TrEMBL record:
Residues 336-347 have a biased composition (Polar residues). Keywords: Nucleus, tRNA processing. Residues 79-101, 292-370 are annotated as: Disordered. The keyword S-adenosyl-L-methionine does not apply. Substrate-binding subunit of tRNA (adenine-N1-)-methyltransferase, which catalyzes the formation of N1-methyladenine at position 58 (m1A58) in initiator methionyl-tRNA. Its main location: nucleus. One of its GO terms (biological process) is tRNA methylation. Coiled coil: none annotated. It comes from Frankliniella occidentalis. Belongs to the TRM6/GCD10 family. Pfam families: Gcd10p (PF04189). This is tRNA (adenine(58)-N(1))-methyltransferase non-catalytic subunit TRM6. It is found in: Nucleus.
Amino acid sequence: MAAALDIVKAGDYIAIQRQDYFKLHKVAENGTVNLGKDILDIGMVIGKSVWTTYRMEQKKGGRRNYQLKECSVNDLKDDSITMSNNSTTTSGTDNRNIVDDGSSQKLSMEEIVSLRDEGLSSKEIVGTLIENSTTFQSKTEYSQQKYLKKKEKKYFEYITVRKPTLRLIAEIMFRLDQGKIFGLRMDTLSQITTAVNLHSHGRYIVFESGCQGLPAAAMLNGLSSEGRLVYVHLGNYPSKQALLALNLTEEQDNSLICVNIYNLLRKIKSESNGNSAEEAIVLAKDQEVFNDEEVKKEESSSEKIELTPALKEESTTPEKEMKISSSEEANDKDQILTNSDQENSCPNKRKHSESGNDDGSAKKKSRWEVETDRAASTLSAKADGLVIACREHPSSVLKALLPLIAPSRNFVVYGQVREPLLELLQELIKRPDVTNVRLTDTWLRNYQVESNRTHPLVNMTGSGGYLLTGVKVQL
């Protein structure tokens, strides 16, 4: 029986695989997903296990609308012409005599479309295309396999639902738009977690902007329930697309603390410059006396001066008092006297409420205040590492967050270009509290490995970004 975490639930993210194509999707009841021009009813995967294979069955009356039917992997292999291709089709020695003029296929476009509308499988459609091709037998074996993969990819009718992992999420986001994740590749993320010396029980700080939460997801993915990750961000809300796609458990969610950088630094500064217990009591008493004087002053002014409720909230200077017309005083006299009597009848209640001793009227802390308190409490014992990946110049960010990590701990700064990191490198070399500062370039080359042919892929990224690493030391 599948584990509870492997069962797809409404609201979960899944990775839909169709051959070499992957897509992230949030599951909803009666929801649909677009795969190219095909529209799939994806709601039926709810309650099923991940790694389940489905066949796309065309709906009646819907040309490119499909419903899913659960099947086995063996069914997929039987219907795949590339997986079960054991035929001894003859092939040519070279393609020099083949001319791509569009006349090699005997079937017209309308006839090919009708094959799909008739409900034929992808294997049957591709087989029909091969039979009506005048040049297929003349192609080389490599060209024939390439042709089969291309046609089967177009008419492939099976999908597999997979559980989103960090590698899948990083690769999908990188393939969709590299700019939205600041050019972060999966190999670069692995270099970051290695350089910061990530371990499951540690406390770490991640400052990220413009990466859709991918660095934070990589760090949180390696932490246990006892670890803590302080996700520092700009603005009111952090970017959590990658974090949400991981389908975080309750334990992982408790290990994550999202806080604004300005609120965090302000809170830590106020605690470091805090007063002693005796001074705090004196300040509290002074504040209480100040509140009492304010209440008495307000009550006395309400007896002598009759103002409208809107003007009562403003300053009661003599200049403003003289601007009040006698007609306004007459119209609002009864209401003001009633308000004044209410204030005079319960001065003790007002004093008690404003002094902050009334639990019922005490202001409840907002979520960002609670998260700021949690972050400051977590970092009171210093963090075990720091990761910075931002579009802004990292110099000021590193200077502000470096004191929050403990000595002999690592920090990593990621940048898509090296010039800002070179400037930061020159600054860190002069600092006595930093050592082992290095600037490295991440490089990865993908290879295609097939029988009788192994070569690098044609399309690759030139660079995976730059990493500035170092160790903080105690003076």
